[in-house]
Protein 1
Amino acid sequence: MKVMLHEMSWTEAKKYFTKNDIAILPVGSNEQHGPQNPLGTDHLIAKAIAEETAKRTGVLCLQVVPFGVSSHHKQFWGTIYISPKTFKSYVKEVCLALSYYGVRKIVIVNGHGGNRCALMEMARELREKGIFASIFHWWEVANKLLPDLFKPEEKGHAAAEETSVNLALHPHIVSMDRAVDEKPRRHTAQTEGIIFSLDTVDYTSSGVFGKSTTASAEKGKKVFDAVVNGLVKHVNLLKEAKIEDLIQKHRV
Ligand SMILES: [Zn+2]
């Protein structure tokens, strides 16, 4: 059975949509991930997690949205960034197109932390339209399910955890001989309880936040399997759930 929308014909899609009201949409970014990882890291990982979950649950999966909210990485070559507003509108319109065919439950598989705020705003706006969107941040799930597999300094952007998942999924585009360990710098204005907008280059010269040389395909496979298992559980729950139980009726 086909689960990828772009591989179906319209008659096959009709068959799916008339029987199902759920879909999976992976989103990511195209941004620097240190000298060793491909720029596509965030969308390639989200795509792999989403597609494997679709195969295991029979839930329709869309093509990955490859560009995200990444202007904070732009000083590093090849980072293609779009504004939060554009990203939110684009992903939302994809979801609304799905809803035209009766989809009311959408699982967004996100590969990039910078997309977080735009996705939350979008989920709220979709809810107002009677569409339930859940957002799956794989690295947070990995942190919960495998808290001790990596040390804190191995869990940062482009560090060992992310590099390991790349090694497990597509080792031919990872160059471990270029992997570096770099302790992020502390900004001079940094004090407790304060946040401000910075660029990645303010913290790191290589683009790596922490330790990446300890990455391994074996650990990456463990992360991928755990994360997919977690997502399969969520998708199966959502598949069975009625939209009336996910979004409350008007007024109490
Ligand atoms: Zn990343």
Note: The chain is about 40% helix and 10% strand.
Protein 2
Amino acid sequence: MGTCDRPAARRPAGLDGRSYHQEFEVLCRYDVFFTDDLFDPASGLLPSVFADPGPDGRFHVGVCLDEGLVNAQPDLPNRIAAYFAAHEGRIKLAGEPAIVPGGEARKGDWEAMLDAVWHFGTPRFGRQDYAMIIGGGAMLDLVGFALSIVYRGGRQVRVPTTVLAQCDAGVEVRTFVNEAGRKDFASTLAPPFAVINDRAMLRSLGRREWIAGTAEAFKIALCADRELFDFLCGSAAAIGDRDEDVMDWIIQRSAVLHLERIRSEGMAFGTGREQPVDLGHWVGHRLEAMSRYWLPHGQAIAVGIAVDGACARRLHLISDEELDRILDGLTRAGLPIYHKHLDERTAHGQLKLLASLEDMRHRFGPHVTVLLPDRIGHAVPVRAPDRSTLAHAVAELAERAGDSAV
Ligand SMILES: NC(=O)c1ccc[n+]([C@@H]2O[C@H](COP(=O)([O-])OP(=O)(O)OC[C@H]3O[C@@H](n4cnc5c(N)ncnc54)[C@H](O)[C@@H]3O)[C@@H](O)[C@H]2O)c1
Ligand SMILES: [Zn+2]
């Protein structure tokens, strides 16, 4: 029997003893564009956003549209087709645009989500093509999530079509879906290839969605930018009158602050570091679920900011005057500071809201911290408020909201 030809006993390069240290960096890079009327055939922006064309020298693009948006802008599919025809030397539709039901109620609908991706750009959509998602924050989350599990992210070009999505959700690197009554239970990391904030998209928004987006602007302003906070407080009338220039300024500032926060805090990348729950969000998310998603995200976050503000005052982080400014600012912008679900109790008399913190402890460990303002334009992570602080904060807001409570 011949001896077995073993390879020479040489260790693979890099193997040190019995371990190999793996390390590489994943670069995250995308541009956020601000424009007015992306699908005006005279606009050359869209073809310039893509890179790396297909074998025919053109960029292949599958388009997915929010049904609520199409209902409000019925000519949009035709305008998109006309735009692609006008620029056919550079861009090509990968198939018929898919129209996907939008809104919060569909954000947990796995079947609709996977169906959306399946029909995304049939018959010719491939991993190398671009997925253009045009819609509100819920639909961007839904389709982005599906793309990230089916195509490992894909090359997403997002066109957020609500104020909230242009300020915040659209420029994010995470996507979320709801599960079993739990808001944003599942998430993926799926940075976009590019984001295009088109102010023309916002013209068909109803008043409620127009105002809702300013809640996320208040959130980031309160945490990071006093000047934006002052601007928001001073612009209530202009926002109500649908002054587009004012809203444009708010959106640009909020989006950039949000991008800076994602980069500097690395908060999305699950580093294992303890991350505080964002201002207004531990309350807001629970209210959304309690209202069976009848209460929109923006309005729920506004109530959450009010509760966190009242807790911050009780914890002596901010003064009475600062709390007044926060509550006045939200109210004058047309946002709620109280909701009847805030004061709902269990059979043992505890605020049902506290279950939100219990859920978080269950998922992320016992030491849940939340972001609270310690002055206007700055926030700090602190231990989640205790029952008594929260109960007092809720009672104070109920009194303050009076008859205007929703
Ligand atoms: N991924 C993230 O990090 C992140 C960040 C913030 C918010 N979000 C999510 O974003 C969602 C909220 O987004 P939203 O405020 O855009 O609400 P939304 O997506 O629910 O949209 C509200 C309604 O407006 C319709 N609509 C969309 N664009 C329209 C237009 N231009 N004209 C008329 N109607 C239009 C939609 O069909 C929907 O019915 C929430 O699910 C929230 O959790 C995600
Ligand atoms: Zn939010």
Note: The longest helix spans residues 244-265.
